[in-house]
Amino acid sequence: MGLNDHAQYQVATKALLFQGDKLLVLLTPDGGIDFPGGRVDATEVDLSWHQALRRELDEEIGSAVQVTIGRTLFVTKRTFNHNEHTTRIAAIFFACEYVSGDITLSDEHSAHQWMTPQELLATDHEYVSDDEKSQLANYFAAAT
Asked: Where in the sequence is the domain holding 81, given as residue range(s)?
């Protein structure tokens, strides 16, 4: 099997951004559950995961928002299909704490909510990834 025969994943960094007992949930334009963060750009390959996440947070929730980025929590898989092309993403989730600042969403998301883990797991909204829903359920179950 040659190098090009292996499954290829793009890498994203994502934040579980907590403010007290609630976390920031973003909604995609079609109403899907998402979290702040995104794919690591080619120009960021020599940066730390935290630096890549910080840029994504500035882009998706605004540079006025101050956040403390903590430890790695888990890694999930996402798959997007667009124009008959499949993109696979490995998303690295980090524990983050909201410090201050007003959230200003990019055009990638239509709304945001602060939700408790229980509210998040009980929501009727679809998740961007079934693997993320499963990983979140496992994480919150272990945390209690």
From this structure: 8-143
Tell me the residue type at 133.
Answer: K
Within-domain flag for 56: yes
Torsions phi, psi of 64, nearest 5?
A: -75, -15
What would the 3-class secondary structure string for the chain be? CCHHHCCCCEEEEEEEEEECCEEEEEECCCCCEECCEEECCHHHCCCCHHHHHHHHHHHHHCCCCEEEEEEEEEEEEEEEEECCEEEEEEEEEEEEEEEECCCCCCCCCCEEEEECHHHHHHCCCCECCHHHHHHHHHHHHHHC
Does 2 map to a domain?
A: no
pLDDT tens digits, 125-136: 999 889 999 999
CATH number of the CATH domain containing 59: 3.90.79.10
Per-residue pLDDT tens for 34-89? 999 999 988 888 999 999 999 999 999 999 999 999 999 999 999 888 788 888 99
Q: Which pTM value belongs to this model?
A: 0.91
Say how many domains are in the chain: 1
